[in-house]
Amino acid sequence: MSPEVPPALAAVLDGRTPAGVLPWPAGRPVADALAAARDAGWHAATLDLGGVTDKATFLDRCADALDFPGYFGHNWDALADCLTDLAWLPPARGRLLAVTGWQEYATAVPEDWSVVEGVLADAVGYWRDTDTGLAVIMAGGRGRQAA
Description:
This protein is α/β, with parallel strands linked by helices. Helices cover 42% and strands 16% of the residues. The chain contains six helices and four strands; from the N terminus they run H-E-H-E-H-H-E-H-H-E.
């Protein structure tokens, strides 16, 4: 059984609240969110951005973490397309993406980070009215848009 998770994520996982981009408390293991998602029948993945300071490396990390198909074009449009497809992932009640170590990239390339925030928000919105929601947790905060 997974540990208790913050109420906002619990409400998403059990379907009481639509999926969204959620903060994750600093110092709390992301593994707690991943375990809770898997227990709820969701597919869960971690996008570790530690040490990422450029777009190319960011897109490579996305491709690896989410097991993007070989046709992934390594650009913003391709990222948006892949996040609104997800057909290559196993069937699940929903999908949780835990983003860790994002602060360094957000600081190094703030213009690119703004694009990333928009792509993630759009992808979450795309899946919101489906039977398979996409939730994103931002470990250690919510990103600059919520500041």
